[in-house]
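Can't paste images in this forum, so I'm doing it all in text. The chain is below; anyone willing to post the predicted structure tokens underneath?
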Amino acid sequence: MAILKNRATQRKIYLRTHHVFGRGRSADTLLENPDASQLHASARWTGTAWELRDHSRNGTLLDGALLSNALGPALRVGSTLGFGRDGGAVWVVEDLSAPSNLLWPLGHDSPPIALGYSNLLPQGQGAELSIHCSEEGQWVCTTPQGSWVLEDGDELRFAGQVWCFILAAEVACTMEGLFGGKVALGRSRTTLCFNVSLDEEHVWLELRDAEHRLDLGERSHHYALLTLARLRLADAQRHLEGCAQGWVELERLAKMLGMDPGHLNIQIFRMRKQLALLMPPGAHVPELIERRRGSLRLGSLRFRIQRGAQLESHFDPLAQEAQTCPDESLVA
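Text version of the structure:
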């Protein structure tokens, strides 16, 4: 991301894909000098460089010189910006990287965190939350308290620090746009393989695709995932449309599993955390759980259930998803 620093206050700001400087309320960076215009200047990412434009009556200074026309040259690291006749506060260009979706530090001096497709924060076993871009292009935060779609400007706390989620609005947040379609595990190729003991006391899980076999071992949260798989299969056998299959209210599912909803949310977070830790760096972490209006279901992944020595079921939800409904879900 591109970063400017105020020479007087040392305050740093990031540049959005189209960043506005001015005295107006809609400005991304508010200018306080009296000769600044409501819409004074803007910086825009062209795809290869940051371009500066002047929209004011009193001018914009680049390296101390007034821009001779509305469109200035591309910015350079080390350049200085000033706004108005006397320049006002001077901003120094520190970084001119391409815009990115990121977490910006609030009230501390930690460096910004550029977001990849899937992020555990902080990294490693001590992760307190997960942020990922869904296949529908939504940024989703999953914590032990639940999951929700992030909006630009949302504040998050982890490791005792507060961060602001910044959405680079003009940068595509889709599988193809962010990662060029290069993901290690596509949902259409992923299979969840459950192995269940006859007394249902133990559930082992393995994730398979054309390139990987990930042994997720035996975990208590695998039984919740198994229950969701069975609910989705039961709805398919009742000939419900693909978009309607498997949805269950969080509280009802928690009651079925003999736990409270808070504990169930913790298990859902542990599912994603475990999988994210096992995945190769930069790989797409499959969407295990989808959520919608207080309900959830198994994501659109193939699955097979082996109970003891018998194959209980083998099902591919994607085969039925040609019958779609308006998508109101988010993924965890």
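The helical segments are 175-179, 221-237, 250-257, 261-278. The chain is about 15% helix and 35% strand.
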